[in-house]
Amino acid sequence: MTDADAPAPSPAADEVEVDVVVLGVGPGGETVAGLAGKAGLDVVAVEENLVGGECPFYGCVPSKLMISGARHAAEGAPDWAHVVRRIREDATHDWSDGPFVERLEKHGGRVVRGRGRLVGPRRVRVGETTYVARRGVVLNVGTRPAVPPVDGLAGTPYWTNRDVVAITDLPASVVVVGGGPIGAELSQVFARFGVTTTLVDVAERLLPKDEPEAATVLGDALAADGVRLVLGQALERVSYTDGHFSVTVGAETLTSEKLLVAAGRTLQLDDLGLETVGVPTDGPLEVDDHLRVTAAADGGLWAVGDITGKGAFTHVSNYQARVAVRDLLGEDGPWADYRAVTRVTYTEPEVAAVGLTEQQARDAGLDVAVATGDLGARGWLDEAAGVMKLVADTEAGVLVGATVAGPTAGEVLGLLAVAVHARTPIEVLRTMHFAYPTYHRAIETVLWRLPH
Ligand SMILES: Cc1cc2nc3c(=O)[nH]c(=O)nc-3n(C[C@H](O)[C@H](O)[C@H](O)COP(=O)(O)OP(=O)(O)OC[C@H]3O[C@@H](n4cnc5c(N)ncnc54)[C@H](O)[C@@H]3O)c2cc1C
């Protein structure tokens, strides 16, 4: 008998029996509810804020609209009002999730508004009602901005991503805390719109999870856009008086009109009732390749999205959702595989990566070879700086990771993602045609720099 077939407790007066409860409706939750609903299951999707989650309302979509506006600004046509309009009217519908709810309901799901909490295996309480899930509960509660415990920061009107996507006026100056993808992207946006921008991070370099060669390219690009980088310095203290922040970083005190905290994310696992099903909350939820939460007493609990720690990206959340639904429907795989997770930082130049970095491959004990190169003829023609780095498992003769920093790097990455995903032999890749003079043609040069 599978978990999905296990008998559920009989419902009491304030209990409603359904097939599946989706708790938290980010991108993955929406996909689970939609696919399970389409398959004929009785699905309840519980959301305390906006159906659709962080990506469409506070994350990917508004930030990419800002980036698109910043590109035009760099070309001499800054129009912040246009960016504000597109975010408000076209993307977020003034932060209303009507279209998302409609889509979900069209697929047969039912939205329940409110904060949900597990109250035992397969049981989720929302207000006075307990939903009892015959097949299971799928958690997709996501993350919120992490706020570092910096002296003086709490109580100041600092921004996080949730505030910055809704601003109508640009400040004269901003300090951005965090040199990861979000901090780097938004710093470039501000600088390109003429805001005096300083990015600070305790790490010695930008994008600490990516290849150092790519971080160097990005650092040069941000500096060229006018972003001042203060790296390798701890944020010591923050204060706010007379409409200005004072930010002490190492031995220096920076002054700015605004402060944006983009210093990582906190898993929203607190007060979720995970203790009622025996699941620890001290880190990402451990899931198996069916997306079942391995520690859950009596099974019946799946998790998708950022809370699984497999890559905090919309596409990972959606990928996992499809896998979890297969399992809920009793289908036979394919199950989750994270060998070729892709990620892109949408700065200009973009930084795109798939699979393992060199360091990760070495830590995994692989027989590693790496090769790097520039963007080849197209880079020279376009006067575009960039780098490509390939990480090979020489024993297996395949690529296990790749990074591209350069124009349209996210698109160039597609080819490399196929190679890593399908474990295409490097020998085969070397026999391909690479159109001249494309950016992806640089792959050929770098492939030949690997041992052969
Ligand atoms: C500024 C920014 C830019 C980003 N850009 C990109 C990008 O370009 N590409 C990309 O792939 N990813 C990007 N991301 C990451 C992306 O937004 C997330 O990975 C994505 O939203 C998937 O998250 P999720 O599925 O885990 O759930 P989330 O989107 O975090 O949604 C979780 C939902 O659960 C709800 N919830 C939580 N607890 C409860 C509860 N107890 N009861 C009821 N509801 C609850 C929340 O209200 C929320 O709506 C970006 C993130 C940020 C912040």
Task: Describe the structure in your own words.
- Helix 1 (27-38) runs parallel beside helix 5, helix 3 (60-74) runs antiparallel to helix 4 (80-91) and helix 3 (60-74) runs parallel beside helix 7.
- The longest helix has 15 residues, at 60-74.
- This protein has helices at residues 27-38, 54-58, 60-74, 80-91, 98-106, 161-164, 181-192, 212-224, 314-328, 358-363, 376-382, 409-422, 426-429, 442-449; strands spanning 15-23, 43-47, 109-113, 116-118, 123-126, 129-139, 143-145, 173-177, 196-201, 228-231, 235-241, 244-249, 252-256, 258-261, 265-267, 301-303, 342-345, 350-355, 368-373, 387-393, 398-406.
- The protein has 14 helices and 21 strands.
- The chain folds into three domains: 9-52 and 97-144 and 266-328, FAD/NAD(P)-binding domain (3-Layer(bba) Sandwich); 153-263, FAD/NAD(P)-binding domain, CATH 3.50.50; 342-449, 2-Layer Sandwich (Enolase-like, domain 1), CATH 3.30.390.30.
- The strands form five sheets. Strands 1, 2, 3, 4, 5, 6 and 16 form a seven-stranded mixed beta sheet that branches. A five-stranded antiparallel beta sheet has the order 17-18-21-20-19, sandwiched between helices. A four-stranded parallel beta sheet has the order 10-9-8-14, covered by helices on one side.
- Bound molecules: flavin-adenine dinucleotide.
- Residues 23-28, 46-50, 53-55, 59-60, 63-64, 115-116, 140-143, 161, 182, 268, 272, 305-307, 312-315, 317, 346 line the site of flavin-adenine dinucleotide.
